[in-house]
């Protein structure tokens, strides 16, 4: 079977009876590129049982991560929020009183009206993100924002550097069918700990190894579970991936592996690139990356002589201040080698463009005002503490509605974030499933449904399916959907007559699908998913890349080039854009270690958590143990640190205490803190993002979570 060819979705059978039980079909809603298709055992009394990956879905292929497999632990958790609550005491003291939904929504609407009356409509900031990837429950808040002309939300915390770097090269956010990894002779997993965070990547890569003898190469900054599965594991210093990519391309030109004929027809300036790379030798890259010259030579020879090389490019190596440049450099290897021409070859990051979902009615874009300011999600601490630049030189934010995110834990510059949320003049309503760090400092907390308790539609950036997530079980009677909250606030605020309001989830789904030229919701419910993968030539850019001239850009226009998440015109390019290179290159706009801060810190994902989700479930935190920092043993010995000691990490943003875990497998001078633990689980009640920065990353913004210089010492207490 040619897996690059779209595969028709199978018609879903009627729910299978298992005694008095049945099996329902849905999709994982969490912030992960895989968007796994799920089969859910449903008991006779309407509860969920076992959760499995769908074997019928050709990408999920019957495999899901352990945390989602244990979902019954989450949906029936005794600590789940069940009733609306109003804060009684001071913020963060945990003194609450129950109130009705009517009263809670009235108070939120009244607070928004007061904020608008005093400071204008931009004083209200609806704040949301990807706690659910369901299009209806996540994005309906934008419709309310546009209708009321509240401050805009520029979502920068996750994708900006990676998407921008990829699209600067290809001109489009799409790529080869990710199922083609199983058809590869070499799979390069670069900057993603797939065993822990995208298990389906490993499903297809391991299949290629078993069936074709394919080599798996993993490039990362420490010896994580994916590195342990590699045939070749390359451990680079954080922020040096572009140097490795440049050396690989240097060798390709030097040794005749560069496909000059392909580049002549498909790239903008291969001669300019070759000239630029003359000095980017393996020895040059070795000094920067920490790899030996032989390691670089061997990797370059493998991919240079293996036509069917699939570069699976993740988010991790792009979470640096030079992340867009690094993504573009790694991507460029596939063009130099001509890997795009082959099934099982090319470079893949995200398939966001292929779904073409028209959400204009859902999000109310027809009545959006381009003059309304757009506030940077990652700079919430600066916004709430009155930073003039972060506020776009406008008035203060004095009221917020927060859905699907937990900024008191996940946002950078945590001390600023906390200071902002503790303001007496700031009203905050949080719609949540658990009492998160953000909910703890809210004025009103509303209980939210989980994905099995409402209808929604999903698209999978890491694969190629549009999937339906139908309601399979009833929520607790006092819990409400995101859509319900938006509809009720719109009614109270007098904008419910605007187009898009008054529709149910299924109506929204049907309208989105039909406006996007896909079959409607009834067909999707029957089929379970739509395989949206383009034909082979389109996916592999053999008909031309996404630019008007069809050419890949070795030399992109960083100030004006395309990006799926480009800042609005009234913001423009961001960060030190003048320092970005004309061709792929190592550019040290990162936080380079110095005498005062001799260590580089990355805040990598934990296997049992997903951002701040699943931190509340017992099995997840028991598997993770406690907040720790991984230290290379030679660094620990030099500083007199033993395994289990309490250490301090700090920089100009603050300092925190963690337990030390001595782990071989990273470069000396590199520290790793896995997982976003709740702040209260840390020794001093402050989480790892005290140490991360919110300065805007070039060219279009973003948060550089893995790019922090810090000092480290044994705690004297």
Automatic annotation (TrEMBL):
Keywords: Iron, Iron-sulfur, Metal-binding
Signal peptide: none
InterPro entries: Asp_de-COase-like_dom_sf, MoPterin_dinucl-bd_dom, Mopterin_OxRdtase, Mopterin_OxRdtase_4Fe-4S_dom, Prok_Mopterin_Oxidored, YoaE_C
Source species, domain of life: Bacteria
Region spans: Disordered: 1-20
Pfam families in the record: Molybdop_Fe4S4, Molybdopterin, Molydop_binding
Sequence ranges assigned to domain 4Fe-4S Mo/W bis-MGD-type in this UniProt record: 21-79
Recorded family membership: Belongs to the prokaryotic molybdopterin-containing oxidoreductase family.
The name this protein goes by in its record: Molybdopterin-dependent oxidoreductase
Provenance organism: Rhizobium puerariae
Taxonomy of the source species: Bacteria, Pseudomonadati, Pseudomonadota, Alphaproteobacteria, Hyphomicrobiales
